[in-house]
Amino acid sequence: MCAAEAKAVPKIINSMNTSIFGQIEYHPSTIYLHRDESYMPRNKKEWRTWNVEMSSGRKEPQLTFWLNEFYPDAEFDGNVFQTWSPAHKPQAELIIRKSEFERVVHTARSRSIISQIEHLQGKDGIFFAGSYSAYGMGLLEEALISGSRASTGVLSNIG
Questions:
Q1: Same domain for 41 and 15
Q2: 22 and 53, same domain (yes or no)
Q3: Are residues 150 and 108 part of one domain?
Q4: Is residue 94 part of a domain?
Q5: Nearest to residue 47, comparing CAs of 81, 72, 20, 22?
Q6: Predicted confidence (pLDDT) per residue in 40-89, tens digit
Q7: Cβ within 8 Å of residue 32, ≥6 positions away
Q8: In a domain, 43, yes or no
Q9: Residue 49's CB: how many other CB atoms inside 10 A?
Q10: The overall pTM is greater than 0.85
Q11: Is a pLDDT exceeding 90 seen at residue 143?
């Protein structure tokens, strides 16, 4: 099983033409885990588990999860938030962790690309798994779906 980012596949697999993996598009993302309440509405009564803000001039929304509400059984020492694509950097002393990564972006071409990847599944006994090989938001859910499909393929080839 090859469970790697699409752009890494051609570097790992050289027994077949893997150029299709180079056509997968990615978008850089930044997430902060923090305690900065400025990401929430000023009126605390308006706070929600998920808070979405789209600012003028931005290409993508800011998404803040209020983790205390998202995980009601967890014990937090004060309010903790996770903000994806922040419009501004949280106050330094309130940052718990910063993560930068790339996520798959499905486009109009994605269905064709995924179809071509599906034709490669099982060739030379290799199955591919990653959010790029299942159509959707390009998040962990698609990676899980593709991993499940790939493991089913691997198991069906055993014996």
A1: no
A2: no
A3: yes
A4: no
A5: 81
A6: 999 999 999 999 999 888 888 999 999 999 999 999 999 999 999 999 99
A7: 81, 82, 83, 86, 89, 90, 95, 96, 97, 98, 99
A8: yes
A9: 13
A10: no
A11: no
Distance from C-alpha of 28 to C-alpha of 30, rounded to nearest angstrom = 7
* Domain membership flag for residue 77: yes
Give the containing element (helix H, strand E) for 2. Answer: strand 2-3
* Residue 103 in this model has a pLDDT that exceeds 70: yes
For 15, the domain range is 2-27+104-157
The whole-angstrom separation of Cα 104 and Cα 146 is 13
Map tokens 């509405």 to a residue: 41
According to DSSP, residue 54 is labeled: -
Domain count within the chain: 2
**Same domain as 20, residue 45:** no
